[in-house]
Design goal:
By secondary structure, this protein is an all-alpha fold. It is built from 15 helices and no strands. The chain is globular.
């Protein structure tokens, strides 16, 4: 019997896919623009708005996979194989486009394009599913894991960074020394994207009251504001672009992602026509993600079309829509090609 499709996962998948493209456009000149310029301020604001994208992808995966009992053989032969073949196929495409000798192409295939790290990370999470399953059978263990994950993956590193960027040197020295001792605890089991993976399961399985949801949304807004303002303040102070607060392993970005996830979980989707359209976009989102950097590079290098073509306040949203549309169409076309439709998108 086929499981009922969860509508809000499709909405989240489409929004996260668009957000990644929006992010890459915003980040294209972020590190090279004058940090005191209006242009850089726009890049920072837009970038900070969409930093929830990757955590949302991971949370969707956790919410989809962790409630199911998937045999290890099927996990590898179906899901991991698909990710691995997609990585190799698209890495080959990007390596060939980049050019160079045979040795260079082979190395680029193995290394993958800059955005392909996500595919390898998902493969790693899939490999850990049989180990994670015993944890999610007990919601108390889930909560315990998430508490430890938040503390050691997000809170402690961010405290260290905040003191580095804004506190007197004496305070930062003390905090840094204390953090060195914390690192000796080797809490690797709860550190990394596995927290978002289990977190997606927790959020999807937990009922939140209206008051709790409002608190989550307020925290999300604070997260967005913190992502932008902390990046701006640390950068202006040092006069060097500081990207730490854009990171996936920050409290502020986590708050953004949780708020977006919960909002769509509880949103009432009334229009069947809109959902049918979203469903189609969702089906082609993985392929669109894989191909979109190629579209960005072609537009920039071949036609000189990038975020600087006119005012970035307008150019970034417009180009994000264009890139999203082209990437989705390419993913749609590939989905009709035998073999590739199964392993490339």
């Amino acid at each position: 019997m086929q499981e009922k499709r969860v509508q809000y996962f499709d909405y989240l998948r489409v929004i996260a896919t668009f957000a990644v493209m929006f992010l890459h456009l915003s980040a294209y000149f972020w590190s090279t623009a004058d940090v005191n310029s209006f242009e850089w301020g726009v890049y920072t604001a837009y970038d900070g708005l969409v930093r929830f994208a990757v955590p949302i992808f991971v949370m969707i995966s956790g919410a989809l996979f962790l409630p199911r009992d998937i045999p290890i053989k099927k996990l590898y032969s179906k899901y991991i194989l698909r990710m691995l073949t997609a990585f190799l196929i698209w890495s080959t495409v990007y390596a060939v486009v980049a050019g160079g000798g045979i040795k260079t192409v082979i190395l680029n295939v193995l290394k993958g394009h800059y955005h392909m790290w996500f595919v390898l990370m998902i493969i790693g999470l899939y490999m850990c599913i049989p180990l994670i399953k015993p944890i999610v059978r007990d919601m108390k263990l889930v909560k315990y894991f998430l508490v430890l994950g938040v503390i050691f993956t997000l809170v402690i590193p961010e405290i260290v960074q905040l003191t580095h960027d804004f506190a007197p040197a004496s305070i930062y020295t003390g905090i840094s020394a204390l953090n060195s001792e914390v690192k000796n605890m080797n809490m690797h089991l709860v550190v990394g994207f596995v927290g978002y993976f289990i977190g997606g399961y927790y959020l999807s399985e937990t009922d939140f009251s209206r008051k709790q949801r409002i608190a989550i949304y307020i925290a999300g807004l604070i997260g967005v504001a913190s992502t932008i303002l902390l990046t701006y303040a640390a950068t202006i102070k040092s006069q060097t672009a500081v990207k730490y607060y854009f990171g996936n392993y920050t409290v502020n970005v986590m708050l953004e992602a949780v708020a977006i996830f919960v909002f769509f979980k509880y949103h009432n989707f009334k229009s069947d026509k809109i959902y049918k359209f979203i469903l189609r976009l969702s089906k082609y989102s993985f392929g669109a993600y894989l191909v979109h950097p190629l579209i960005l590079e072609i537009l920039d290098k071949s036609f000189g079309i990038n975020a600087r073509i006119f005012n970035p306040l307008v150019s970034i949203p417009v180009l994000a829509i264009i890139v999203f549309t082209i990437s989705t169409i390419i993913s749609l076309i590939v989905s009709y090609i035998p073999v590739l439709k199964k392993y490339a998108v």
